[in-house]
Amino acid sequence: MQDEVIFYTNPQSRGRIVRWMLEEVGAPYRTEILEYGGSMKAPAYLKINPMGKVPAIVHRDQVVTECAAICAYLAEAFPQAGLAPTAEERASYYRWLFFAAGPLEAAIIDTKTLGVEPDAEKQMMVGYGSYAAVLDNLSNWFMGHNYVAGDRFTAADVYVGSQINWGLQFGTIEKRVEFIDYAKRVTDREAYQRGNAKDDALMEKA
Fold first, then answer.
1. Model pLDDT for residues 135-170, shown as the tens digit of each residue
2. Residue 182: which CATH number?
3. I need a labelling partner for 74 at 20 to 30 A (CA). Which of 12, 30, 80, 149 fits?
4. Claim to verify: residue 154 and residue 96 sit in the same structural domain
5. Is residue 203 part of a domain?
6. What region, left, alpha or beta, does residue 205 occupy, with left being phi > 0 and alpha being psi -120 to 50 degrees?
7. Do 29 and 22 contact (CB within 8 A), yes or no?
8. 9 φ, ψ to 5°?
9. CA 55, CA 6: separation in Å to the nearest integer?
């Protein structure tokens, strides 16, 4: 199929974000499951993503990696789903999509996974400043908005929502009421439930 998306993933990876996005846009897609340390590092896949990481997609002979980029790409490639931003939504859409992919993820990895908390001087050097500042910034937005771009669900909510939902589950994001409410709004969606069920089933087979 000309419009088929080839989806490279592992159910125990960030590929779950892309699975959700594929379900949201209703794209025809074929799943290729890769194994850590095996097919993920094989020459055939390294030609697609030299980083040897998942997820990645191939669509119309184009390769897209990085979850935030894949979500944005699929929203534009399948506009009938209505998940790309309008002109009025574009600023907030891109602001928070890249905030989650940059400062939010970096702050979580550094502080909660690696145990690195920059002091006041080094906070000037790192893009996120501090873990607390990142959470305050994001939670302030959701105090006044239901979704990333305002009052409507967009592709950015797939990525931001996944980051927040995982953070709440694994204890890397504080359980603030605005995060809890937002995570429930986005994970109540049928596409999220379908995608999650597919990846859970793949894990059970492994």
1. 999 999 999 999 999 999 999 999 999 999 999 999
2. 1.20.1050.10
3. 12
4. yes
5. no
6. alpha
7. yes
8. -160, 180
9. 10
119 and 64 both lie in a single domain: no
Residue 205 lies inside a defined structural domain of this protein: no
What's the confidence (pLDDT) of residue 206?
64
* Tokens standing for residue 149: 């771009």
Please tell me the distance from the alpha carbon of residue 138 to that of residue 132, in angstroms, as a whole number: 10
Alpha-carbon distance of 31 to 80, in angstroms, equals 22
| C-alpha distances out from residue 76 to 24, 27, 120, 133, 177, Å | 13, 12, 40, 32, 32
Alpha carbons 77 and 71: distance in angstroms, whole number = 10
Structural domain includes residue 196? no
Give me the number of domains the chain comprises: 2
Dihedral angle of Cα 150, 153, 2, 68, to the nearest 10 degrees? 70
Domain that holds residue 126: 90-191
On whether the pTM is more than 0.85, the answer is yes
Strand pairing category for 29-33 and 62-65: unpaired
For the record, the structure tokens of 177 come out as 């009421």
- 33: domain CATH number is 3.40.30.10
